[in-house]
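User: two proteins, same treatment. go.

Assistant:
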Amino acid sequence: MSRRHRVGMVRSVALCVAIASPLANAHDFWMEVSRYHVEPGAAVDVSLRVGHGAEVTRYPRKPSHIDWFAVEREGARAPVQGAVGAEPAGRAQFAQPGLYAVGYRSTPTFIELDANTFESYLEHEGLEPIIEERRRLGQSAEPGRELYSRCAKSFVRVGDGPVQAADYTRPLRMPLEFTPTSEPSAIHDGQQFGVRLNYNGQPLPGARVDAMHWASQTAEPVTLIGETDANGEVSFEFTNTGTWVIASTYMFEASADDDADWESLWATLTVDVAANASAKP
């Protein structure tokens, strides 16, 4: 079997209420910006979140967990500044108009889980091929030893000038990364919004992708579930205004040099959905 395992099973796009497990709560991770559209010269706070539903918590800045944390426009990158332990985790200043990508790449974290917890987590995340491979290797009753890292992304539009496709399709060069297929600063409810999921710069087909929206931090999210096509693309029709988190997980066999048996990458893209001005009251 290949050392690279697909994470997705064939699933149609469906509307459902997500059922979370404690382990899944520990892995869900994304960023939120205080404003998604600002004037030149404005500053934006960047917060990190971890959890799910009522378990969502603020994630303070932890330098030992950060590989890089930056804003980028037209290939020029600047760090998101912040103090140790700060929440929000950082602040970015935007001097020039344009569309800026904000990215957070974590350092790897090792975790070891008992067999039942690990198998439940794999099932919850749609990682059935890993379950099958563990069964084939006679490892179903053994602990799960995993090395995971996070790839979070969002966008901030500065000013009202034109946005070019290259402004949002240019990658931040994260190992697992969502790239919008249409302008992320002009999403309205009731419209389709598409993304491409890339692994090491190449489209990742057959991957499960969740799009989640929280009415409040004390409620379980509305979740749309899709699967990437042969081009690594999937689209959603957002039914609620406000912040949506698009997420996917990719797991593969770890390097022989690692203490872990498996390595996983967790990618998120946070977008803001506005009310459709053309909708009838």
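Protein 2:
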Amino acid sequence: MKITVEDGSQISEDAVKELEKHADMIECQCPNKLIDILQKVREFEEYTEECIEKYPEDRDTHKWLKSSAINIDQLLSTTIIQLARFEGFIDANNEFVDRGEGK
């Protein structure tokens, strides 16, 4: 599977699920912790979308919060991909390395 993310963009949910499968290839829990944070940010982004509709008087504030969540998602996505490269989960072409080839 090829990961569809470039630096500064959001990693797809399918790629996150695949990374979770590979995260056990290293002893520490850093990949899983980052993925947990990413999921929380995405939940918050969805929540702010609901607030935009539910509280029209605070629309600008919630749009700003949603935009900030998207920026955090992009930063976390890039961090997770770089960590996956460092740890050998994916190669330079953003493709998952066969589990037999990883660290």
